[in-house]
């Protein structure tokens, strides 16, 4: 291996594969290695036998669950906003030609012990049982303001400077009650906790607009889309893209060790006695444990069921957000459900996930409010994993380390991490102002 690469990427998680694809398209010479023999790293999808092996050791899955190969169970379950950054990245790189997507049926919020559809427009607000009559009128005014808001047109601001006004002050101008604020902040703007209330309102307004634009793209029941056969398809699609542009892939490379020069800068990777040289290293936290710190933990339950989540209008795929305040917690809980309609389970089977940022060491107890909403389950698995973030200075050591995947069931935070790493590596900002109508060909 006496070639020199611009970048060596370690790990085939989704973040690493997207970066590898983007850098290859930019003309950089990329070598991509993984100690595993499969694509996807932490964000892989497992068939039934692999799932059993991971959670139940030597046990065999029961025959009544159907063929193992019909299952694609995501280890990091997330939907994509139809108008969001990940979809724009897929279109920008033309990766859409390797994938097929289908809209997600429903988007819901847990409020006062019940599941409700999330109203996202002034018309939906008027029909929603989440609010009384007067509250509906106030909410309608709020949604009309957000729909009309244009950052570059002061006439639409009605005298408010959203870069200075906090979200709390902004929302109070419409007189909305705490329950309404709760679902707007958590189920539409997709904030993970209540810190956003004291931050400038512009971010929240942009997030709600993204939700509405995503919803409008499919005229469906939710703003989300999801790939057929699960998320394991995404890393492989970006790997294909990288290969088309000259990237080299090596799986099953044991003990990938990053080498540093006298100045402490990454200069290569050694595996099986051979060293490949490079100028920069990109990796997930597991490859450079001494350059990351633990910042939290995710608790997750995976359920195999023979029915959709109750009270979600028989949706074959859905997200339910349980805002922290409704549960007396510090952070939100998320329900994610997909099924045979997205080719991730045999006919008649549904896969549901309940996830949250762990606040205790007892996932079974902590996830109970979400699990209670699932109805009867055929099988239930629990896991927790640590979240790490980098503490190094990439300009000093040439190491670009991704942050672990969070508990959210949508991709916005994941892609922001990738794009900031891309900018640090290349000095460029990726232009994602693409024509989204061009993507329709790739969607079902």
Automatic annotation (TrEMBL):
Pfam families xrefs: GDI (PF00996)
Organism name: Musa acuminata subsp. malaccensis (Wild banana)
Protein name stated in the entry: Guanosine nucleotide diphosphate dissociation inhibitor
One cellular-component annotation, GO: cytosol
A Gene Ontology BP annotation from the UniProt entry: vesicle-mediated transport
Statement: the UniProt record of this protein carries the keyword Cytoplasm: no
InterPro entries tied to this protein: FAD/NAD-bd_sf, GDP_dissociation_inhibitor, RabGDI
Highest taxon in the source lineage: Eukaryota
Job of this protein: Regulates the GDP/GTP exchange reaction of most RAB proteins by inhibiting the dissociation of GDP from them, and the subsequent binding of GTP.
Family, per entry: Belongs to the Rab GDI family.
GO MF, any single term: GTPase activator activity
Alphabetically ordered keywords of this record: GTPase activation
Signal peptide coordinates: none
């Amino acid at each position: 291996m006496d070639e020199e690469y611009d970048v060596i990427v370690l790990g085939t998680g989704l973040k690493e594969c997207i970066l590898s694809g983007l850098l290859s398209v930019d003309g950089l010479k990329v070598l991509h290695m993984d100690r595993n023999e499969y694509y996807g790293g932490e964000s892989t999808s497992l068939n039934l036998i692999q799932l059993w092996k991971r959670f139940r050791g030597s046990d065999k899955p029961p025959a009544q669950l159907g063929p193992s190969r019909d299952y694609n169970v995501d280890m990091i379950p997330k939907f994509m906003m139809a108008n969001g950054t990940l979809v724009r990245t897929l279109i920008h790189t033309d990766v859409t030609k390797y994938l097929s997507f289908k809209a997600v049926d429903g988007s819901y919020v847990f409020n006062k012990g019940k599941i409700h559809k999330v109203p996202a427009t002034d018309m939906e607000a008027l029909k929603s049982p989440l609010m009384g009559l007067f509250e509906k009128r106030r909410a309608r005014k709020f949604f009309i303001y957000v729909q009309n808001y244009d950052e570059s047109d002061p006439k639409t601001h009605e005298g408010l400077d959203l870069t200075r006004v906090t979200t709390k002050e902004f929302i109070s101008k419409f007189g909305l009650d705490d329950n309404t604020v709760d679902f707007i902040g958590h189920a539409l703007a997709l904030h993970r906790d209540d810190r956003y209330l004291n931050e400038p309102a512009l971010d929240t307004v942009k997030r709600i607009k993204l939700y509405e634009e995503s919803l409008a793209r499919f005229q469906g029941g939710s703003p989300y889309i999801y790939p057929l056969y699960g998320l394991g398809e995404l890393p492989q699609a970006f790997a294909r893209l990288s290969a088309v542009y000259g990237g080299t892939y090596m799986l099953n490379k044991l003990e990938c060790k990053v080498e540093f020069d006298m100045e402490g800068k990454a200069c290569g990777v050694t595996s099986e006695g051979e060293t490949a040289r490079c100028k920069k290293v990109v990796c997930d936290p597991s490859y450079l444990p001494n350059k990351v710190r633990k910042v939290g933990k995710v608790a997750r339950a995976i359920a195999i069921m023979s029915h959709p989540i109750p009270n979600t209008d028989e949706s074959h795929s859905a997200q339910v957000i349980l805002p922290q305040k409704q549960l007396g917690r510090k952070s939100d809980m998320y329900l994610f459900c997909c099924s045979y309609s997205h080719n991730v389970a045999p006919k008649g089977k549904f896969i549901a996930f309940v996830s949250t940022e762990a606040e205790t060491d007892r996932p079974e107890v902590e996830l109970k409010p979400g699990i209670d909403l699932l109805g009867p389950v055929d099988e239930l698995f629990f896991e927790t994993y640590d979240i790490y973030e980098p503490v190094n200075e990439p300009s000093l050591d040439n190491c670009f380390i991704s942050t672990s995947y969070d508990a959210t069931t949508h991709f916005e935070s994941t892609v922001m991490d990738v794009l900031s790493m891309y900018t640090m590596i290349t000095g460029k900002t990726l232009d994602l102002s693409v024509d989204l109508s061009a993507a329709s060909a790739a969607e079902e």
